[in-house]
Amino acid sequence: MQTDTIAAIATAMSNSGIGIIRISGEEALAVADRMFTPKQGNKRVSEMTSHTIHYGYIRDGEEIIDEVLLLIMRAPRTYTREDVIEIDCHGGILVMKRILETAFRCGARPAEPGEFTKRAFLTGRIDLSQAESVIDVINAKSDLALKSSVSQLRGSVSEKIREIRDSILHELAFIESALDDPEHYTLEGYYDQLGDIIGKNMENVHKLLVSTDNGKMLKEGIRTVIAGKPNAGKSSLLNVLVGEDRAIVTEVAGTTRDILEEQIQIGGVGLQVIDTAGIRDTEDVVEKIGVSRSKEYITKADLVIYVVDSSTEMDENDRMIIDSIRGKKTIVLLNKSDLKSRTTEENIRTYLDAPVIAVSAKERQGIDELEQLITEIFFNGAISFNDEIYITNARQKHALAEAEESLKMVIHSMEDGMPEDFLTIDMMSAYEELGKVIGESVGEDLVDKIFSEFCMGK
Predict the structure, then answer these.
(1) Ranges assigned E (strand) in 120-277
(2) CA 14 from chain center: how many Å?
(3) For position 383, what pLDDT does the model report?
(4) pLDDT in tens, 146-167
């Protein structure tokens, strides 16, 4: 555990109303003593009461750098469980840098990315799953993603993992006691009891594992591809959903030849919307590449919005698109509903079983209905958020998968009639893999790698 004192700018490096410089470590108060002068009185920072705010000046020698508020937080009631000083200064880039440089001259060193949160983990204030949720809170792209991340930050994942581990550890201890002291502990009839316990734990681990698909959508947004023939109104739809003109819209078919991506939010659900090139048979080399990419994106989509020009009749290109989206979660939009209709809902249902909405991207008709349908499909359906736990982290997913495999091996060994001490090998393996989720059995290199991906000052 490092005991030196670290400092960093905790707010964005841009001009703003305020900036925050954070200092943490054994010498945090001493560093503040050397650079802060209160507006009134002559108390040193080290003499001031914890969890109080003081008005004064940051000085570099005799030079006043800025007029600030200084927050004193003594260990252990701090984010890092170390002494922490936070300096609220004016939010100019130059002034924040000058204050930080002064802190370095007064005894602190530059913090590494994520080092404050790393210290919170190393001092036991939070576990690794909670630490990883910190960066998820910062990067949340929707209300649901934020709720899930805050839930993990409060310990929802940790609590469930510890519950499973405690159950496994209890059985490990019982088996060891029975093998060491058979006069007082008996294993007679124990297999049936252990089978029920391992089965229940395996169920709980599996439930966490199957949440990872929804967790990925929560974290990254629902991968939504807008597909259709050229000039069907895909780009117009994207512009309406985003709320600004992001895609070029013309009467010329094939205007969109590359992929446009935008992040939007509908009813608390984050959508990663992708506007693709119109799909049709074409001899144009560049357009062919765009069509090929469109098909690739469709195969990876969580949701396909198939835009149909209802003012024209369906043709072979429509049937080619329908073949490519069959089996995908799809919403069909009969666009240009303000014009005379030549393609109807009945025509679509001849080829595809999917919700159909009549819209006019140009007039913004039917868009509210589309947004409502997306909300119903995901918010009230596949990824509704009602205090359930969603695993959003690939590292955690891998550890859970390994734990589930070890628990399966315990069941198989029991079915094969293996001795109790043999069962404990896989039980301990499951216990350790679950420990990796919360950071109780991970190496220093992995810890360093995880926190290196955090932003500076956090």
Answers:
(1) 222-228, 260-266, 269-275
(2) 25
(3) 47
(4) 777 777 777 888 999 999 999 9
Sheet (strand 303-309) strand order = 260-266, 269-275, 222-228, 303-309, 330-335, 356-358
CA 18 – CA 388 distance, rounded (Å): 37
Q: Which residue has the higher pLDDT, 187 or 352?
A: 352
pLDDT digits (tens, 9 = 90+) for 82-98: 999 999 999 999 999 99
- Which amino acid appears at position 235 of this protein? S
Could you identify the residue written with the tokens 């059995």?
A: 441
223-246: pLDDT as tens digits: 889 888 888 888 888 888 877 555
Q: Concatenate the DSSP letters of all residues of 81-115 into one string.
A: SS-EEEEEEEE-HHHHHHHHHHHHHTT-EEPPTTH
Alpha carbon distances (Å) from 385 to 46, 375, 393: 46, 12, 17
Q: Could you tell me how far CA 79 lies from the centroid of its own chain? A: 21
- Say if residue 15's pLDDT is above 80: yes
Peptide bond into 76 cis (omega under 30): yes
The string of DSSP codes covering 395-451 is HHHHHHHHHHHHHHHHHHHHHTT--HHHHHHHHHHHHHHHHHHHTTT--HHHHHHHH
Q: What is the pTM of this model?
A: 0.70
Which phi and psi angles does 354 have, rounded to 5°?
Answer: -160, 155
Phi, psi dihedral angles at 238 (to 5 degrees): -60, -45
How confident is the model over 267-325, as pLDDT tens digits? 667 888 888 877 876 666 666 777 778 888 888 888 899 998 888 888 888 888 898 89
The mean pLDDT value of the chain amounts to 85
67: part of which helix (H) or strand (E)?
strand 63-73
| 455, burial (CB in 10 Å: exposed 0-12, middle 13-18, buried 19+) | middle
CA distance 208 to 423: 23
Instruction: Say how far residue 71 (Cα) sits from the centre of its chain.
Output: 30
Contact at 8 Å (CB) between 169 and 161? no
Hey, which bits of 251-375 come out as E strands? 260-266, 269-275, 303-309, 330-335, 356-358
Q: 386 with 157: CB under 8 angstroms? A: no
Is-contact 228 278, C-beta < 8 A? yes
Query: Helix, strand or coil for residue 295?
Result: helix
- Tokens 């190393």 correspond to 122
Do strands 330-335 and 356-358 pair parallel, antiparallel, or not at all (unpaired)?
Answer: parallel
In the sheet where 16-24 sits, what is the strand order?
Answer: 36-38, 52-60, 63-73, 84-91, 16-24, 6-9, 109-110
Q: How many CB atoms lie within 10 A of CB 27?
A: 20
